[in-house]
Amino acid sequence: MLIAVIDYGSGNLASAARGLALAAERQGITSDIRVTSNPEIVRKADRIVLPGQGAFADCAAGLASFDGLQDAMMARVTDGAPFLGICVGMQLMATRGLEHQITRGFGWIAGDIAVLPSESLRLPHMGWNELAFTPGAHHLLDKLMPGDHAYFVHSYALTGGDPADIIANTDYGGPVVAMVAKGNRAGTQFHVEKSQDVGIQILRNFLTWNP
Fold this sequence. Notes:
Elements: E1 2-6, H1 13-27, E2 32-36, H2 39-44, E3 47-50, H3 56-64, H4 69-78, E4 83-86, H5 88-91, E5 96-97, E6 103-104, E7 112-115, E8 125-130, E9 149-154, E10 156-159, E11 166-171, E12 175-182, E13 185-188, H6 196-207
Protein backbone atom coordinates (compact mmCIF):
# COMPACT_ATOMS: atom_id res chain seq x y z
CA MET A 1 0.00 0.00 0.00
CA LEU A 2 1.51 3.31 -1.14
CA ILE A 3 0.65 6.11 1.30
CA ALA A 4 1.55 9.68 0.31
CA VAL A 5 2.08 12.13 3.17
CA ILE A 6 1.93 15.49 1.42
CA ASP A 7 5.00 17.63 2.11
CA TYR A 8 4.32 21.29 1.45
CA GLY A 9 6.42 22.69 4.29
CA SER A 10 3.81 22.45 7.06
CA GLY A 11 2.82 19.85 9.61
CA ASN A 12 4.38 17.15 11.71
CA LEU A 13 5.48 15.15 8.69
CA ALA A 14 7.90 12.81 10.42
CA SER A 15 5.46 12.18 13.28
CA ALA A 16 2.62 11.52 10.85
CA ALA A 17 4.79 9.07 8.89
CA ARG A 18 5.84 7.27 12.08
CA GLY A 19 2.23 7.05 13.23
CA LEU A 20 1.17 5.58 9.90
CA ALA A 21 4.04 3.08 9.97
CA LEU A 22 3.05 1.93 13.46
CA ALA A 23 -0.61 1.70 12.45
CA ALA A 24 0.28 -0.39 9.40
CA GLU A 25 2.49 -2.66 11.50
CA ARG A 26 -0.23 -3.22 14.10
CA GLN A 27 -2.76 -3.86 11.36
CA GLY A 28 -0.47 -6.29 9.53
CA ILE A 29 -0.40 -4.17 6.39
CA THR A 30 2.69 -3.90 4.18
CA SER A 31 3.05 -0.18 3.58
CA ASP A 32 5.25 2.15 1.57
CA ILE A 33 4.98 5.54 3.25
CA ARG A 34 6.35 8.47 1.25
CA VAL A 35 6.69 11.98 2.65
CA THR A 36 6.58 13.71 -0.70
CA SER A 37 5.93 16.82 -2.75
CA ASN A 38 6.28 14.85 -6.00
CA PRO A 39 3.00 14.96 -7.97
CA GLU A 40 3.83 11.67 -9.74
CA ILE A 41 4.03 9.78 -6.44
CA VAL A 42 0.78 11.40 -5.27
CA ARG A 43 -0.97 10.31 -8.48
CA LYS A 44 -0.02 6.69 -7.76
CA ALA A 45 -0.83 6.71 -4.04
CA ASP A 46 -3.38 4.30 -2.60
CA ARG A 47 -4.08 6.72 0.28
CA ILE A 48 -3.28 10.37 0.87
CA VAL A 49 -2.59 12.14 4.17
CA LEU A 50 -2.41 15.95 4.40
CA PRO A 51 -0.94 17.21 7.68
CA GLY A 52 -0.97 20.89 8.55
CA GLN A 53 -0.19 23.34 11.30
CA GLY A 54 -0.11 27.11 11.49
CA ALA A 55 -2.37 29.59 9.71
CA PHE A 56 -4.97 28.49 7.15
CA ALA A 57 -3.84 31.03 4.53
CA ASP A 58 -0.17 30.11 4.92
CA CYS A 59 -0.93 26.41 4.51
CA ALA A 60 -3.13 27.04 1.46
CA ALA A 61 -0.41 29.18 -0.12
CA GLY A 62 2.28 26.65 0.73
CA LEU A 63 0.38 23.81 -0.90
CA ALA A 64 -0.32 25.88 -4.01
CA SER A 65 3.33 26.89 -4.31
CA PHE A 66 4.46 23.37 -5.32
CA ASP A 67 3.96 23.01 -9.05
CA GLY A 68 1.31 20.40 -9.80
CA LEU A 69 1.10 19.05 -6.25
CA GLN A 70 -2.40 20.24 -5.35
CA ASP A 71 -3.75 19.27 -8.77
CA ALA A 72 -2.31 15.77 -8.40
CA MET A 73 -3.81 15.41 -4.94
CA MET A 74 -7.22 16.64 -6.08
CA ALA A 75 -7.22 14.32 -9.09
CA ARG A 76 -6.22 11.26 -7.08
CA VAL A 77 -8.84 11.96 -4.42
CA THR A 78 -11.47 12.52 -7.11
CA ASP A 79 -10.49 9.12 -8.50
CA GLY A 80 -11.38 7.59 -5.14
CA ALA A 81 -8.20 7.40 -3.05
CA PRO A 82 -9.08 7.74 0.66
CA PHE A 83 -7.90 11.10 2.04
CA LEU A 84 -7.16 12.12 5.63
CA GLY A 85 -6.54 15.74 6.61
CA ILE A 86 -4.91 16.42 9.98
CA CYS A 87 -5.47 19.69 11.88
CA VAL A 88 -5.11 22.46 9.26
CA GLY A 89 -5.14 19.69 6.67
CA MET A 90 -8.71 19.03 7.80
CA GLN A 91 -9.54 22.74 7.85
CA LEU A 92 -8.47 23.11 4.22
CA MET A 93 -11.31 20.75 3.29
CA ALA A 94 -13.84 23.49 4.17
CA THR A 95 -15.28 26.23 1.97
CA ARG A 96 -13.27 29.11 3.41
CA GLY A 97 -10.77 30.02 6.08
CA LEU A 98 -11.35 33.27 7.97
CA GLU A 99 -8.00 33.46 9.75
CA HIS A 100 -6.59 37.00 9.21
CA GLN A 101 -8.19 37.10 5.75
CA ILE A 102 -10.70 35.17 3.64
CA THR A 103 -8.98 32.24 1.94
CA ARG A 104 -10.66 29.64 -0.26
CA GLY A 105 -10.51 26.05 0.88
CA PHE A 106 -11.02 22.92 -1.18
CA GLY A 107 -14.82 23.13 -0.81
CA TRP A 108 -15.09 19.41 -0.03
CA ILE A 109 -17.26 20.07 3.01
CA ALA A 110 -19.53 23.00 3.83
CA GLY A 111 -18.62 25.63 6.39
CA ASP A 112 -15.99 28.17 7.34
CA ILE A 113 -12.94 27.90 9.56
CA ALA A 114 -13.49 30.61 12.20
CA VAL A 115 -11.92 31.54 15.51
CA LEU A 116 -13.13 29.65 18.57
CA PRO A 117 -15.27 31.63 21.02
CA SER A 118 -12.83 32.69 23.72
CA GLU A 119 -14.62 34.98 26.16
CA SER A 120 -13.61 32.88 29.15
CA LEU A 121 -11.23 30.37 27.58
CA ARG A 122 -7.62 30.63 26.58
CA LEU A 123 -6.53 30.28 22.98
CA PRO A 124 -5.14 28.20 21.50
CA HIS A 125 -7.22 25.30 22.71
CA MET A 126 -4.34 23.01 23.61
CA GLY A 127 -4.30 19.65 25.32
CA TRP A 128 -6.30 16.45 25.74
CA ASN A 129 -10.05 16.58 25.21
CA GLU A 130 -12.78 13.96 25.07
CA LEU A 131 -14.33 12.86 21.79
CA ALA A 132 -18.12 12.71 21.58
CA PHE A 133 -19.64 10.52 18.88
CA THR A 134 -22.21 7.83 18.21
CA PRO A 135 -20.62 4.36 18.28
CA GLY A 136 -20.76 2.79 14.86
CA ALA A 137 -21.21 6.15 13.16
CA HIS A 138 -18.17 5.74 10.91
CA HIS A 139 -15.42 3.22 10.19
CA LEU A 140 -12.75 5.69 11.34
CA LEU A 141 -14.25 5.46 14.85
CA ASP A 142 -14.26 1.67 15.04
CA LYS A 143 -12.85 0.25 18.31
CA LEU A 144 -13.03 3.68 19.97
CA MET A 145 -15.41 4.68 22.75
CA PRO A 146 -17.10 8.01 23.44
CA GLY A 147 -14.98 9.77 26.03
CA ASP A 148 -11.68 8.65 24.53
CA HIS A 149 -9.20 11.53 24.50
CA ALA A 150 -7.33 13.14 21.59
CA TYR A 151 -4.71 15.88 21.53
CA PHE A 152 -5.76 19.31 20.20
CA VAL A 153 -3.76 22.44 19.35
CA HIS A 154 -5.84 25.06 17.53
CA SER A 155 -7.54 28.44 17.75
CA TYR A 156 -9.83 28.01 14.73
CA ALA A 157 -12.45 25.37 13.94
CA LEU A 158 -15.20 24.47 11.50
CA THR A 159 -18.40 26.47 11.82
CA GLY A 160 -21.60 26.24 9.79
CA GLY A 161 -20.84 22.73 8.63
CA ASP A 162 -23.33 20.13 7.47
CA PRO A 163 -24.23 17.88 10.44
CA ALA A 164 -24.12 14.91 8.05
CA ASP A 165 -20.37 15.51 7.57
CA ILE A 166 -19.53 15.76 11.28
CA ILE A 167 -18.73 12.41 12.88
CA ALA A 168 -17.22 13.54 16.20
CA ASN A 169 -17.16 16.62 18.39
CA THR A 170 -15.31 17.79 21.44
CA ASP A 171 -16.15 20.52 23.96
CA TYR A 172 -14.30 23.77 24.54
CA GLY A 173 -16.80 26.30 25.80
CA GLY A 174 -19.37 24.53 23.64
CA PRO A 175 -19.34 21.92 20.87
CA VAL A 176 -16.29 21.98 18.61
CA VAL A 177 -16.02 19.86 15.47
CA ALA A 178 -13.36 17.20 16.00
CA MET A 179 -13.77 14.90 12.97
CA VAL A 180 -15.44 15.12 9.57
CA ALA A 181 -16.03 12.61 6.80
CA LYS A 182 -17.72 12.83 3.42
CA GLY A 183 -17.32 10.17 0.78
CA ASN A 184 -13.67 9.16 0.64
CA ARG A 185 -12.50 12.36 2.38
CA ALA A 186 -12.05 12.65 6.13
CA GLY A 187 -10.27 14.88 8.60
CA THR A 188 -9.37 15.29 12.25
CA GLN A 189 -9.07 18.67 13.95
CA PHE A 190 -6.83 17.04 16.54
CA HIS A 191 -3.38 15.61 15.91
CA VAL A 192 -3.79 11.87 15.42
CA GLU A 193 -0.01 11.47 15.42
CA LYS A 194 0.12 12.90 18.97
CA SER A 195 -2.98 11.14 20.30
CA GLN A 196 -1.24 7.92 21.36
CA ASP A 197 -3.29 4.72 21.08
CA VAL A 198 -6.48 6.58 20.11
CA GLY A 199 -4.70 8.25 17.22
CA ILE A 200 -3.02 5.03 16.11
CA GLN A 201 -6.40 3.26 16.11
CA ILE A 202 -7.85 6.01 13.89
CA LEU A 203 -4.90 5.59 11.51
CA ARG A 204 -5.43 1.81 11.53
CA ASN A 205 -9.06 2.42 10.65
CA PHE A 206 -8.01 4.80 7.88
CA LEU A 207 -5.73 2.16 6.37
CA THR A 208 -8.60 -0.35 6.23
CA TRP A 209 -11.27 2.16 5.16
CA ASN A 210 -12.94 1.38 1.85
CA PRO A 211 -15.43 4.21 1.28
